[in-house]
Design brief:
It is a single chain. It is built from 20 helices and 19 strands. It folds into 4 domains: about 5-10 and about 450-565, OB fold (Dihydrolipoamide Acetyltransferase, E2P) (Beta Barrel), CATH 2.40.50.460; about 55-250, inorganic pyrophosphatase (n-terminal core); about 255-325, no CATH class; about 345-450, Diaminopimelate Epimerase, Chain A, domain 1, CATH 3.10.310.30. The protein is an alpha/beta fold. Helix 10 crosses helix 11.
């Protein structure tokens, strides 16, 4: 019945008690904090009150002084600067950020973003040819470039300096003028898990400090950094937590015109903006441009300052995203139909290929397949005689390292531990599928093939007080590296008959032994509805999160179901 492997986290109770007393919170809240590595009053203060003053100096990033000096030279000499961005949310937001900032300084700046289908990822021959034709003498990459050895070598031969702003894992460092990446050797920046847009933001911060343009000249772009950080699935800890929190505050208080128009199209009030609206609203619409047509559409929208222009661009991105959803739904259904045949030969991974699949949505379909089957997943299509694929991995399996072991069968691969992209020749497909599955089989024991649900603490319903709820709200923003707290309550029974909503969501009420009642909503859990229909009087345990709801100007909290476990007799 249970969909997950439940794991009740058990931090040291002495440390939990000390933390509870020092910051005056309940024991379940203190356990949730300890489970996030927070042990002291000062650490809790930084967690609950993330402040822009907590960001490290951008000059701790290796090569930052060299990069700033080079940009200053370009500004003084009137050189042409080309921003070379990736076509996803991270690359487009970072490109828009740098373009707007450098334009304010009077720079001769333009931008280039690859066509996903004809050029692929990274610095392409077409992009470099464009720079040469335009007389560009400085390229600044955004969310790409760390593995572009050959391309950057060509730039040097053409008299073009390259500053790399990237966050992907380095291999052999390219011959760039400066490399800004917290993951390169000997970098002293204390936080490694920035996204590419955040690295570009640090360059803006450093330039502003050097030129004396003031804090607001860089702080005004925190909204774009927040969107990129949330969308790129980097860890929402430490500096990323600060960047997202500050960015969300700016969007809520005073959204820039482009965001105001898009939120209007989405039917979302800027004042209630959350991580959910970024992950499932803004990010898909921004990504849709590069997946379906040209990523430049997203950059143009992000930089638009007129009400009419931004509204027109937002509506176009909405239209493209609707088309994207139709295509990825069709692909997902076809992929589901192929799984049974695939499992007949391979049991530890999903590696599916169809030459007609749309390359722009491979990653989306891979993520949806991973969510359903919880196995390392590769979804592939065809382009120019090569097979191109998107890879997604389960927690605890570094897919980048798996691909390194398959490197002899791949023309190209890149990414990080949870997601990657690959290119291979058709004749290597069968061997790749076999080798990928063999490695996954070795690294994934059976017990890890069911997704683990981390539970922060047992919780009695009577402990859910107003003070508890107010403190719990301050755990947000949630995301990778700062998951939403999950609690567990046992000895519950149904209070009334459950309802099935839209044939897939379950809604019911629960009652504990003391008569305390709570409403419960379970999204995409029709299985729970069927189980209750079969055993309406069963005693069960719930694993859940708590969410605030409003009705008739009254706030209340309801349980959002994660999983249910029926008690055995």
């Amino acid at each position: 019945m249970t969909r997950f492997r439940w794991k009740l986290l058990e931090p040291d109770e002495r440390e939990v008690l000390l933390l509870s007393e020092s910051i005056n919170v309940s024991l379940p809240v203190a356990r949730a904090l300890r489970n996030r590595g927070i042990a002291t009053y000062d650490e809790a203060r930084l967690f609950f009150r993330p402040s822009i003053s907590g960001l490290s100096s951008p000059f701790l990033l290796k090569d930052m002084e060299r990069a700033v000096a080079r940009v200053q030279d370009a500004l003084r000499n009137g050189e042409k600067i080309l921003l070379y961005g990736d076509y996803d949310v991270d690359g487009t937001t970072g490109t828009a950020l740098l373009y707007l900032f450098l334009s304010e300084l009077g720079a001769g700046v333009s931008y280039y973003i690859n066509d996903r289908f004809t050029e692929g990822y990274g610095l392409s021959p077409e992009g470099i040819a464009f720079a040469e034709q335009e007389g560009v003498t400085l390229i600044i990459t955004v969310d790409c470039g760390i593995r572009a050895d050959e391309a950057i070598g060509r730039c040097r031969q053409s008299g073009i300096d390259v500053i790399v702003c990237d966050h992907h894992e380095p291999h052999e460092l390219p011959p760039a003028y400066a490399i800004l990446n917290p993951k390169v050797p000997c970098c002293t920046y204390p936080f490694r898990d920035l996204c590419g847009c955040a690295v570009a933001f640090l360059l803006v911060q450093a330039l502003a400090a050097t030129l004396g343009t003031g804090e607001e000249s860089w702080a005004m772009y925190l909204d774009l950094v927040a969107i990129a950080t949330a969308a790129d699935m980097v860890s929402l800890e430490k500096e990323n937590r600060i960047l997202v929190n500050e960015g969300l505050l700016r969007i809520r208080r005073s959204p820039r015109q482009s965001l105001k128009s898009m939120l209007s199209v989405m039917g979302v009030d800027a004042g209630g903006m959350t991580m959910y609206h970024i992950a499932f609203g803004l990010a898909p619409r921004i990504n849709a441009a590069g997946r379906m047509q040209r990523a430049q559409l997203a950059v143009e929208w992000l930089m638009s300052s007129s009400e009419d222009g931004s509204r027109c661009s937002a509506e176009e991105l909405e239209r493209i995203n609707l088309l994207r959803r139709e295509i990825d739904t069709d692909m997902f259904l076809k992929a589901e139909g192929m799984v049974a045949g695939h499992f007949a030969s391979y049991c530890s991974s999903i590696v599916l290929y169809d030459e007609n699949w749309h390359l722009g949505v491979l990653g989306i379909v891979a993520s949806r397949m991973l969510e359903k089957y919880y196995l390392p997943t590769v979804i592939m299509g065809s382009m120019n005689g090569r097979i191109k694929g998107s890879v997604r991995s389960v927690e605890g399996l570094n897919v980048y390292e798996v691909l390194q072991q398959c490197g002899d069968l791949l023309d190209q691969f890149g990414g990080h531990n949870q997601a990657a992209g690959i290119t291979l020749r058709p004749e290597n497909l069968v061997a790749f599928r076999k080798k990928f599955d063999e490695i996954c089989s070795r690294l994934l024991p059976p017990e890890r093939r069911q997704k683990e649900l981390l539970i922060d603490s047992k919780l009695a319903l009577e402990e859910v007080t107003s003070n508890f709820m107010n403190v719990l709200e301050q755990f947000s923003p949630y995301g990778y590296g700062n998951r939403e707290p999950v609690f567990m309550t046992s000895g519950l029974v149904l209070a009334g008959r459950p309802k099935l909503l839209k044939e897939k969501h379950v809604k019911f009420a629960v009652r504990d032994r003391n008569g305390r009642m709570f409403d419960v909503i379970g999204f995409d859990r029709s299985d729970v509805y069927r189980a209750f229909e079969a055993s309406p009087t069963s005693v069960f345990s719930l694993a859940y999160s708590l969410e605030k709801r409003s009705w008739n100007n009254r706030d209340y909290w309801q349980i959002r179901l994660r999983d249910v476990m029926f008690m055995t007799t």
